[in-house]
Write a structure and sequence with these properties.
alpha/beta, FAD/NAD(P)-binding domain, 5-stranded parallel beta sheet, binds flavin-adenine dinucleotide
Length: about 400
Amino acid sequence: MTEVNPPSSGRVVIIGGGVAGLEALLALRALAGDRVELTLVTQNDVFVDRPMTVAEPFGLGSAARHSLPELAAESGAEFVQATVVAVDADEHRVSLDAGPNLSYDTLILAPGAQPTAPLPDAITFGVEGSGEAMREMLTRLRRGDARSAAFVAPSMTGWLLPLYELALMTAHDLARNNVEGVHLSLVTSETRPLAVFGEDGSEIVARLLEEEGIEFIGAAGGTQEVMVGVSGESLAGDYLVTLPVLRGPGINGVPGTRDQNFIPVDEYGRVEGLADVHAAGDAANFPVKQGGLAAQQADSVAEYVAASYGANIDPTPFRPSLRGMLFTGEDPLYMRSGVAGADPDTPDAWYPLWWPPTKVAGRYLAPYLFERGDGEGIGGPPVGFIDVDIPLAAVTLPG
Ligand SMILES: Cc1cc2nc3c(=O)[nH]c(=O)nc-3n(C[C@H](O)[C@H](O)[C@H](O)COP(=O)(O)OP(=O)(O)OC[C@H]3O[C@@H](n4cnc5c(N)ncnc54)[C@H](O)[C@@H]3O)c2cc1C
């Protein structure tokens, strides 16, 4: 930090009550104490532990739900339920869809990404109603009314792990119910299963798919076939299951990348061209969209902002480390990748992100939610998961 006489206090407004917004809120309160006056602005008033939603259709667990006004109050933050429609960075002001404008000294944008359904007639897991559609699919497969399902990756970006989880848990569910003869496939433009997790991780996932009888159709197996699968055309099957395609939030006054409108940021989450504005999480332009990474970005932002208000801290730039937990529906299975070739700044045993063992990532958020323990259905992970820990510097990111 180069500022000679930094201000000793200021008003920080955080947009978004998801993983990144809440991690920033908790981290800032912990690091900056009462140097910052905090306001959380978000569209909804409930935080849902989204990664856990994949277990719900299978009856293997349920996503915790937490009241955002309560979470804000516990961090001494003002809570405003509204949608931010514009940012005026020159005036240090945000406009809301309802209510008066808000002024800020520092703005943290964590509004997530906009999901859209990529394939007509597919179940797009993660959009409204998709949990119910999955339950209906399972019922029909169990009864023999449908005989196949293809799990189709919409693109190599985003976060494909839930698609693999859904395929594995479907296979496991059918086996548990003694249903035979259902053809399940996983169609992706990756060359090998969950390629982002590197060779070791990928091998384990490949073995799991094979054991569960799920056909893997990847780019290495024939580009033509994958393209047909990815476009959703003529895949012989009763069901297609896919994930949403993500785009940036598109808030007026906030820059976006040309292709997908994600907010361009540097390693401290500073938004290109806007003074005193940061962004973190799925809304920002890092290509892998994942809760753990969203939290790591939020931590870098919080450290930078805390230091800018005089907190005695040397901010750590965002150095992504990918950590995941894969639900399989089987007995618990852990996996940790080697860290050969990793960025030397990235520790191979990461600090307590992974304890407690929930799917909500975040150095501050995970232990906080676990201790709070009052969310509906909160608990340990459901049966069957693989724990994966990979510094991203060690793997090739999808483009
Ligand atoms: C089915 C599924 C399974 C997943 N599994 C995993 C997993 O196992 N592990 C993992 O790490 N990640 C997983 N992810 C990804 C993870 O959920 C996201 O990466 C993470 O939620 C991103 O956090 P975020 O805070 O950036 O955005 P979000 O969680 O999307 O939060 C955005 C917040 O901003 C609010 N908001 C949006 N626009 C505005 C606006 N204009 N004004 C005010 N508020 C606004 C929203 O209401 C919301 O509160 C999964 C995702 C899905 C869909």
